[in-house]
Amino acid sequence: MKRLVVFFLLLGLLVWTSVAFAAEPYEIAVVVKIAGIPWFNRMAEGVEQAAKELGVNAYLTGPATADPAPQVQMVEDLVTRGVDAVCVVPNDAKALVPVFNKARERGIVVITHESPFETEAIDWDVETIDSVKYGQQPIDAIVEELKEMGELDKYTPENPAGFVMLVGSLTVPLHNYWADVALEYAKEKYPFLKELTSRLPTAESVEDSRAAVLDLITTYGDQLKAVIGWGSLGPIGAAQAVAEKGMEDEIIVVGSAIPSTVAPYLATGAVDWAQLWDPKDAGYAMVYIAKQILDGVEIKEGMEIPGLGPIKVEGKVISVNQIKIMPDAETAESLGF
Amino acid sequence: MLQRIAGKTETYLAGVVVALSVVLFLLNPKFLTAENLFDVLRNNSFLGIVALGELVVLISGGIDVSFTAIATVAQYVMGVIITRYMVESVFLAFLIPIPIGIALGAFNAFLVNRTRVHPVIITISNLNVFYGLLMVISKGKWIYGFPAPFRDFARLKVLTLVSEKGVDYGLSIFTVVWFLIAFATWVILKYLPIGRKVYALGGNSEAARRAGFNIFRIQLFVYCYIGLLAGLAGFVHAELNQMIQPNAIVGRELDVLAAAILGGASVFGGAGSPLGVVLGVLFIAFIKNGLILVRASAYWHQVIMGLIIVLAATLSAYQQNLEQKRRGRT
């Protein structure tokens, strides 16, 4: 009996010392806009993969609603707890500035994603797409479609092919940046394309996008040749409107869309072309970059993120170009999310 | 007396809607084409149906802001069942969301009656409870890829016309459902004893209590009624979008309240009519449709919708003043 007690005491001591002296893995928290939705669940897969491969304690968390205040609070708590790095997909990048400053004063690495314009208070911003290309490609896709329809020669600057853009809201920085890029690109390269009316803030809702596109068809008739949706529900709503009017062959619908959602619409031709990036890649890339910085590795152009290729560095923005293009339903389905 | 005030609001609003239509027609003649009007009516049937439920709650002196969550829960459960078991019968699918709506409405009524906390607080809390639980359980997953009969039903028309391009258009089944519910709501409020009691409770709750009305039964009726309509509207919304997204409806409470209040319902209870609410929905629908038709920049849309909500609130306060003057006299 006595010997048993001694044995357990010794065992306890052994366990205690091994815990105390083992090198503690870095704690890297990824805070997303809203926890539990499919987009960020997919991102969590990338974070978990990185945690396993890199031997760090990385996890994904986020507020219950996509509001700035609870997200700021959450980052605040993590900073107080003393994590090694916070990676944030901001709801409102400006609202996070004070807490980011506090984090960096304490030596915590701060990384953002989908926020290449607010880089004042952070270490790095990680993007998995080339935002300029992302803005230009839908315009090329429209021209390609016009070519396939044999209508390209029909349009001139005097008799232009009209298009309309749907954004999530007039204040979503990336959506509006892409829309600006697209507009400028079209003006320069394809003067026979013309924006019919200023961008409409409907692309976070299938319902609003559908209603808006029905109204646009009524208003512009044959002038309306193409719709670009920058939010992932824009093309879906537009496709429904186009299908309702039996105009799948006449109106071109392109834009951002989640592969599994858009596949059936690509199959019927209601959506002609779609693009997106994989949130899993973004989750992986953020944790990978955070680990490199904590290890003291210098971040420089051409450095390789496993599976995602060499990085480009512009100011504080690190990017790899991993735009997933979906020209048809099979390609969309093969992406697996 | 109540009817006379309500009557005035309706006549006034009908005049505004007609004037608005004329202006929009002059700016873009396509506004008054049957095709456009049928589209607008179909697209707003969700809003139209829940606004009628809100009307009944407002008349009783209560308010319900949880109906968006109720509609979402009801349509989500339906979506899970019909896609998992590939339910081929639209009629069976249609029967799923309604009892869910009624049950959640009853839960609201129970809390409102027992806790005596203001219904705004109760229903905001329940909005978060219903919606939050759904998000926890569903992980926000979208549902799409409905069975074929469910997709065909969305195109069902009661009256079919063919456009110059050879595409069908016409009076959607959902518009008909909306108008039938408006009619049923009118019959209930005007001719059934429970309808009179709803007005009585909202007009003066103390008097209703003293007259020996069973207040709980009236509250149970109004919250279950909006629950039922929210369930039905959830079905309509899923049909219209062919997709169920847990966060698509939540957040649209103000649109519905604005439509009901514009239509003459008072946030202080006792006033309002189904015809008024239908006109209120049409007014908002025409403005939204018209803004695109007259090629107004999107930056203006928000300003104008905001102004309409302010207008609705002002009208309601004005009505309240009239009401107080009337009470002062008698």
Number of strands of chain A: 16
Q: What is the beta-strand fraction of chain B?
A: under 5%
The greatest interface here is: A-B, 33 and 39 residues
Annotation field: number of helices of chain A: 11
**Model regions low in confidence, pLDDT < 50 over at least 5 residues of chain B:** none
> pLDDT under 50 segments of chain A (min length 5)?
none
> Biggest sheet of chain B, in brief?
2 strands, antiparallel
Which class of secondary structure composition applies to the elements of chain A? alpha/beta
Average pLDDT across residues of chain A?
Answer: 91
How many strands appear in the DSSP assignment of chain B? 4
Structure classification of chain B: mainly alpha
Radius of gyration of chain A, in angstroms, nearest whole number: 24 Å
Instruction: State the end-to-end CA separation of chain A.
Output: 58 Å
Order of helices and strands of chain A: HEHEHEHEEHEHEEHEHEHEHEEEEEH
Mean pLDDT of chain B: 90
Biggest beta sheet summary of chain A:
7 strands, mixed
Radius of gyration of chain B: 20 Å
Tell me, briefly, the overall form of chain B.
globular
Keywords (chain B): Cell inner membrane, Cell membrane, Membrane, Transmembrane, Transmembrane helix, Transport
Protein name (chain B): ABC transporter permease
Pfam family, one (chain B): BPD_transp_2
Transmembrane segments (chain B): 12-29, 49-78, 90-111, 169-189, 215-236, 256-287, 299-318
Structure, described:
Chain A: Residues 1-22 form the signal peptide. Chain A: Residues 28-296 form the Periplasmic binding protein domain. The complex is a heterodimer of chains A (337) and B (330). By secondary structure, chain A is of the alpha/beta class. Helix content of chain A is 47%, strand content 19%. The N and C termini of chain A lie far apart (58 Å). In chain B, β2 (157-162) and β3 (168-172) form a beta hairpin. The mean pLDDT of chain B is 90. The A-B interface holds A 34, 36-38, 41, 64, 170, 197-201, 205-207, 210-212, 214-216, 218-219, 233, 236-237, 240, 244-247, 261, 264 and B 28, 30, 33, 35-36, 39, 43, 46, 132, 135-136, 139-142, 144-145, 155, 165-167, 237, 240-243, 245, 247-248, 288-289, 292-293, 295, 297-299, 301-302.
